[in-house]
Amino acid sequence: MVPALLSKGYSREEVVNLFRFVDQMMALPDSLQQEFKTELIRQRELGQMPFVSRIEEMAKEEGLQQGIQQGLQQGIQQGIQEATRRILREETLAILEVRFNAVPPEVAEALNGIDHPDTLRRLLRAAITIPSVAEFQQLISTAL
Predict the structure, then answer these.
(1) Contact of 46 with 40, CB cutoff 8 Å
(2) DSSP codes of every residue in 68-135
(3) How far is the C-alpha of 113 from the C-alpha of 51, rounded, in Å?
(4) What is the pLDDT of residue 125?
(5) Residue 35 and residue 125: Cα distance in Å, rounded?
(6) Cα gap 20→134, rounded to integer Å
(7) If you placed Cys at 49, which of 4, 43, 94, 140 could pair as Cys (CB 3.0 to 4.6 Å)?
(8) How far apart are CA 62 and CA 57, in angstroms?
(9) How far apart, in Å, are the Cα atoms of 71 and each of 64, 65, 66, 83, 84?
(10) How many C-alpha atoms does 2 have within 13 Å on its Cβ side?
C-alpha cells in the first residue's frame, strides 16, 4: 500500500499523515493489530514504511518494558552483591570479636574498604584460624 501511494505522487509526509489520521480514527481488533504491526515492520525493513504513531507507541512501550526489566534485574543483582559483601564483613568482624574480645577500629575500617567478595571470603576463613588481630591486620593490608 505504501509503495502504491508513493508511486502515485504522494510525498512521504503525506503518507505518514494519512496513516496517522487512519490510525486515530480506527482501532483494530488485537489479532488484526498484530498482523498490521508485523506488516509494518516488514515494510519498514524494506525501507518503504515511515513511522506511524500507533506503531511508534507500541515500539516505545516494548522498549520501555525491556528497559524496566533490565533495570530491575541489574538492581536485584547489585542488591545481592552488596548484601553478600555486608554479611561477609559483619561475620568476619563478629568472629574476630568473639576470638579476641576487641577489634581495633582501623581493622573494621580496612575491612569495610574491601569490596571484592572473594577477598572478603578469604578474610572470613582466615579470621577463624589466625593467631592474632595484629596478624589479621597485616593480612588485610596485603589483601589491599
Answers:
(1) no
(2) HHHHHHHHHHHHHHHHHHHHHHHHHHHHHHHHHS---HHHHHHHHT---HHHHHHHHHHHHH-S-HHH
(3) 51
(4) 95
(5) 60
(6) 74
(7) 43
(8) 9
(9) 10, 10, 9, 18, 20
(10) 21
In this prediction, residues 88-115 reach a mean pLDDT of 94
Grid coordinates given for 82? 552488596
Specify the amino acid at residue 1: M
Tell me the pTM. Answer: 0.55
Distance between CA atoms of residues 133 and 99, nearest Å:
9
Per-residue model confidence (pLDDT) at position 8 = 79
First to last CA, the chain: 67
- Residues 111-131: tens digit of each pLDDT: 999 999 999 999 999 999 999
The domain spans of the chain are 2-51, 80-143
Burial of residue 32 (CB within 10 Å: 0-12, 13-18, 19+) is exposed
Residues 25, 51: Cα–Cα separation, whole Å: 17
Instruction: Output the nine-digit C-alpha cell for 131.
Output: 593467631
